[in-house]
Amino acid sequence: MRIRSCLEVTRLVLAGQDRALDPIERQAVRIHWRVCEGCRHFARHMRFTQAALAQWRQQRDRLDP
Amino acid sequence: MDDFQQQVAALRPQLLRFARSQLRNETWAEDAVSDTLLVALENAQKFRGQSQLKTWLVGILKHKLIDHLRRHSREASIFSDEDSVDIDESLFLPDGHWREFPTDCGDPAAALGERQFFTVLEACIDLLPPTQGRVFLMREWLELEADEVRSTLGISAENLYVMLYRARLRLRECLKVQWFGDQSPVGT
Questions:
Q1: Is B25 helix (H, G, I), strand (E, B) or coil?
Q2: Minimum-distance CB partner of A55 among B112, B122, B176
Q3: Does B46 score more than 80 pLDDT?
Q4: Quick one: which of B182, B57, B165, B16 has its CA closest to A62?
Q5: How confident is the model over B73-108, as pLDDT tens digits?
Q6: How far apart, in whole angstroms, are the C-alpha atoms of residue A30 and residue A34?
Q7: Nearest to B112 among A10, A17, A52 (CB)
Q8: Which ipTM did the prediction report?
Q9: Which residues of B38-72 are buried (b: 16+ CB within 10 A; e: fewer)?
Q10: How far is the C-alpha of B186 from the C-alpha of B188, rounded, in Å?
Q11: A45-64 average pLDDT score
């Protein structure tokens, strides 16, 4: 399998937040992560952001100031 | 004004702030909040506790916001000049490598305990271009599925994914200065 570029992997990782990735896409991301520390960091940033958004949503729905 | 009316009126500014950030249009936001307060006052007898009232009001507001997004779907899904900027060029080299590699962010979870974090998060969301901000909040605050966002705004899957992709990248760019250990100087 061709190694995808950082740009392609970033597109997949972000698409994964709005639709289910297919097995080939998930595999491509995992293979890229093995060799690319930057994209692993990026994925971690995104996981953190999603966790932060979940907490923010709860606060907002309670109308906390 | 009775007690209930006063409680509801006191929450109006917060509801309006939420409506503005979701709709990015002053008139629609005012209308959506007025609609919300009307429903609340018509159903006054159902409520006692303040916290229940807040949750209930936000729930009504969310429905009204979706109504307004649907009603103004054409205008609400226009790609402004800012929405149209191709962010890839500024973040990636022509061969698809990062221009600046994302770095280890340490433990950003600690930031979640800080009130300031959420202030900055909201500021970053409000800085998104208008249509990107709308679709992003439809997903992340109104919690609509991607298909529901598409049908509400009447846009193609491709356009929706482009907007969400750019919104998520922009949000990270905005947050990274303070939380993801970027090398650039932190603004004061």
A1: coil
A2: B112
A3: no
A4: B57
A5: 999 999 999 999 999 999 999 999 999 999 887 666
A6: 6
A7: A52
A8: 0.94
A9: eebeeeeeeeeeeeebbebbbebbbebbbebbeeb
A10: 6
A11: 90
Please work out, in degrees rounded to the nearest 5, the angle formed at the alpha carbon of residue A36 by the alpha carbons of A34 and A41: 105
B146 close to A (CB below 8 A): yes
> How many angstroms separate the CA atoms of B99 and B185, rounded?
17
The whole-angstrom distance between A59's CA and the closest CA on chain B is 10
Whole-number percent of chain A with pLDDT over 90: 83
C-alpha torsion B153→B159→B163→B168, nearest 10: 110
For the cut 70, the answer to whether the pLDDT of residue B8 exceeds it is yes
DSSP-assigned beta bridge partners for residue B98? B92
If one counts the domains in chain A, the total is: 1
CB contact under 8 A, B104 and A59: no
Tokens of B21: 């950030």
> Domain range for residue A57?
6-61
Ordered domains of chain B (ranges, CATH): 3-71 (1.10.1740.10), 79-179 (1.10.10.10)
**Mean pLDDT, all residues of chain B:** 90
